[in-house]
Amino acid sequence: MYYYPYVNRYIEFYNYSINNLEDFWAYQANIIPWFRRWDKVLEDNHPFYKWFVGGLLNASYVCLDQHLETYRKDKVAFYWENELGERETVSYYELYNRVNYFSKFLQDLGVKKGDVVLIYMPLVIDAIVAMLSVVRLGAIHNVVFSGFSKNAILGRIEDSKAKFIITATHTYRRGKKVDLLSVIKEINVDSIQNIVVLDRSGDFKEEGKYVKWPTYKEFVYVPPVPVESTHPLFVLYTSGTTGKPKGIVHSTGGYLVYVASTLRWAFNVDNDSIWWCTADIGWITGHSYVVYAPLALGITSFIYEGAPDYPDPSKWWSLIEKYKITEFYTSPTALRMFMKYDLKYVLDHDLSSLRMLGSVGEPINPEVWEWFYVNIGRSKCPIIDTWWQTETGGFMIAPFIGILPLKPGFASLPLPGVLVDVVDEQGNSLPPNTKGYIVVKSPWPGMMMGILNDDEKYKEVYWSKFEKMYYPGDYAIRTEDGYFQLLGRADEVIKIAGHRIGTFEVESAILENDFVAEAAVVGVPDEVRGEVVAAFVTLKQGVSVNEELKQKIIGKVREIIGPVVVFSSIFFVDKLPKTRSGKIMRRLLKAVVLGKELGDITTLEEEASVEEVKKAYEEVKRSIV
Ligand code: WTA
């Protein structure tokens, strides 16, 4: 079938993994140390799955303590730098000391197994110390991206019942000081027992619940609390089609086995690697591939707190040169931004340390792939396109070590133990080169355990569209040779610069303006960010349209969700086009924004007749002010 012998060998190995799923994962689970071996590899209570049941471990032990017995004790765990050029380096041993010290501090505050601790911090080493200290005690972290605003934090506290917050006074972005503490101070939730503040400015004053992050004095040992494999490691909120962001819960054992395995398989990271994953810890990519997988494998990482193109577009490339990065993992959005700039910013730098490049978050278009391959990889580094989601924990489709050939725009073959297919509306497998829904047909250890406090939603969103298949909500095609190409979301999730934003969330935020009657938003293509938001708004009676209203709408959305939401346009219309059952015809709205001809759109809406769609289309167009 394949011309490349290595691929054939991989397929054999892959088939073995699928046909012996439990044995395969049981063997693979030795990639991390356990305090107690599991009794059962997989407990199938469809659609709830438990991995390595009966096993005991601790994530902080997996990431730190295990390395102290090896030469990795003094190996660098993280190099860190920020926009001001400040630098910090920590070895595994130093990180271990800091985590123990901070664990003790948290323990004294009363943090214990099962408590939820909200972390609202920029990308600094102490943010990682915070995460590992929380899990050392068996508590559960809920990291909230530092670009999110007050309401996003409030919603998460309410849902996760977080008892503690760990934050920092500020961060820097494009040379500007961004205050984080003031955001936290706007929140006054009685159930929060303490707020620990990393004082980066030197003028923080302890007061009431607000306590200062302790300065390291001496070594203290806090025994890592052994937790069950199925004990939640963290909850991370992500946007879906309807309702508020969902609290995705990941396990400890299955998750760690999965992220460590997949990082090694896809990027072949090694003892001499200097790994740079550019994601923030506020996203799943940061959890899995900045914190847990690299530390579990004992490799050296670089992290950077700041904007990619500040003070100029050579920033990232100069960092690759300076730190001699060997594997570089980023997003198509970032690459598209760099493609706008003069190539000299890239070519002026010696990037010869690079061995592997990676991409995540959205489909990487072939032009971007070529640019990445030629200019950053200097035509010698494979591009590892990794398809996965918050819910999957780690990579699902990505080239296994050294697989050839790579095809621009294709995430290649599924990783071992991951059974993926492309199906039609009824769940039947589709022939090659036919667009359909991507599904996962067998459980894998990195899979989420569920949605916090909402088993029904978990069943409905992921397991009800098809019988016994996990539904990720993406379109894909598969070629004759089994390669997968991902074609974007099949639902109403908008991917702005790779970040998942639900239409419902944006609409709800727009509705917070008292002059707005109704709102509908759609994602529209954007050259750099992949997608941005176009909004259609109807105003309350008596309100007249003016430019200021648009600014107010944008301001409100920023206030409620944060600056991650970027608008292309806001249209004021008389009424929103709806089907008889009251569903907003979003695809029609999209067609209006994209200036598509009527002919293209008549088949767009399943629930309305051609005549209705035509009429609605004309009405919307006519009424745009
Ligand atoms: C999209 C990010 C194409 C996809 C890790 C998925 C991708 C969503 C790729 C999950 C890729 C992620 N090619 N599309 N390599 N990687 N996606 O939860 O639509 O923020 O469903 O996780 O990103 O986004 P999330």
Can you walk me through this structure?
The chain has a domain at 492-620: ANL, C-terminal domain (GMP Synthetase, Chain A, domain 3). The strands form nine sheets. Strands 5-4-17-16-18-19-20 form a seven-stranded mixed β-sheet, sandwiched between helices. A five-stranded parallel β-sheet has the order 7-6-8-11-12, sandwiched between helices. 32% of the residues lie in helices and 24% in strands. The chain is globular. The longest helix has 18 residues, at 92-109. By secondary structure, the protein is an alpha/beta fold. Helix 1 (5-19) crosses helix 2 (21-28), helix 3 (59-68) packs across helix 5 (125-136) and helix 8 (253-267) packs across helix 9. The model has no long low-confidence stretch (mean pLDDT 93). The protein is built from 19 helices and 30 strands. Bound molecules: 5'-O-[(S)-ethoxy(hydroxy)phosphoryl]adenosine. Residues 238, 284-285, 359-363, 385-390, 411, 472-474, 486, 489, 500 line the site of 5'-O-[(S)-ethoxy(hydroxy)phosphoryl]adenosine (WTA).
Short description:
With 625 residues, this protein is an alpha/beta fold. The protein has 19 helices and 30 strands.
Task: Record keyword descriptors for this entry.
binds 5'-O-[(S)-ethoxy(hydroxy)phosphoryl]adenosine; 625 residues; GMP Synthetase, Chain A, domain 3
Unreliable parts: none
**Average pLDDT metric:** 93
Per DSSP, what share of the residues sits in E-state strands of 2 or more residues?
A: 15-25%
Name the shape in a single word: globular
> Main β-sheet, in a few words?
7 strands, mixed
- The SS-based structural class is alpha/beta
Helical amount: 25-40%
CATH architecture of the domain at 492-620: 2-Layer Sandwich
What's the total number of strands?
30
Number of helices: 19
| Spatial strand sequence of the major β-sheet | 5-4-17-16-18-19-20
